[in-house]
Amino acid sequence: MNTATNTISLKVNEGRLIQNLQHAFTNSHTVLGELLQNGRRAGASWISVNELSDDSSDEQLSLEIVDDGVGIDDPQTLLTIAESGWDEATVEQEQPYGVGFLAALYAARHIMVSSNGWVFSASTKQLLAGEPVEIRQLPAGKSVETNALPCASGTRILLFDIDLE
């Protein structure tokens, strides 16, 4: 007689999960709401949202979001689902899900992020496919140029060719 026990456990189809998460961000306010909330959680005293003008493309919307919060030490936290990167007190008080930044990836065709001395730029298709992206270190004391206020600290996010329905 066979006494083996059959078991099952929770599994994740990573590709399908990433593909289907876009449906969690169907509201056009979600992208800005998530990015503004991240700035607030980072202790920003100001957050600037600017439309970027591009004379060659009147139809495409591009935005710059800049804040003077504490910034992001590890850029990988932006691209890790269910890992918010917030401190323990914020996690306990607000229960951030760690998927908010993904709203930006689903809304734009290209994204650039700089914070705390690093910068990356990539197509969102590349990011959502899990392809590696180079992180460049900025020279000490330098910040990425911004149309808003200087961003020597804090975070700057550029969203290019946004589709907010």
Give the topology, please.
Blueprint: H1 14-20, H2 28-41, E1 47-52, E2 61-67, H3 88-94, H4 102-107, E3 110-115, E4 118-123, H5 124-128, E5 136-137, E6 155-162
Antiparallel strand pairs: 1-2, 2-6, 3-4, 3-6, 4-5
Describe this structure in words.
- There is one protein chain.
- By secondary structure, this protein is α+β, with helices and mostly antiparallel strands.
- It is 24% helix and 21% strand.
- It has five helices and six strands; from the N terminus they run ααββααββαββ.
- The longest helix is centred in the N-terminal third of the chain and has 14 residues, at 28-41.
- The model is unreliable at 146-150 (pLDDT under 50).
Strand tally: 6
Cα distance spanning the termini = 61 Å
Total number of helices: 5
Structural class by SSE content: alpha+beta
**Element-by-element helix/strand order:** HHEEHHEEHEE
**Main beta-sheet strand count, sense and barrel state:** 6 strands, antiparallel
Strand order of the largest sheet: 1-2-6-3-4-5
Average pLDDT: 80
Strand content of the residues, in percent? 15-25%
| Apparent shape | globular
User: What is the gyration radius calculated from CA atoms?
Assistant: 18 Å
